[in-house]
Amino acid sequence: MKTSIQNSSRSFLEWSGISLALLGAADALYLLILKYTQLEALCVGNRDCITVNNSIYSEIYGIPVSAFGIAAYLAIAGILLLESRLELARENGPLAVFGISLAGVAFSAYLTWIEFAVIRAVCPFCIASAVIISLIFILAIIRLVKQISH
Hints:
150 residues, mainly alpha, de novo design (two linked rop proteins), two-stranded antiparallel sheet, 5 helices
């Protein structure tokens, strides 16, 4: 039987993950809008976000990387929302969120390296996304450990 402390801890982890995933989706949507509008006014402080967003590294087979980010963040939020409603999601959700966020962290690390080492321009919204997916990954590890230990 779960205690109220375990339930509140689980609820906090789930809602933190959902909140971060929605924030990440909003950030990625912002980058997608920037990609298609090219409005320099949307860049904060400098033109680096446009430079990064127009680089050859900003698309995979013609699809903006930010579109993949939106999909990943929404998938994470959806899984977390379904965990309280579906047994399948409850049993497999922590591992699925871990896997998606692990891939996101690895890809974000690669893109951040590209920004600093190759493009030599840093997009603050891309860095924000890297931080958000890293926080989701940390929460996913905690949730997975809690699931395994129970």
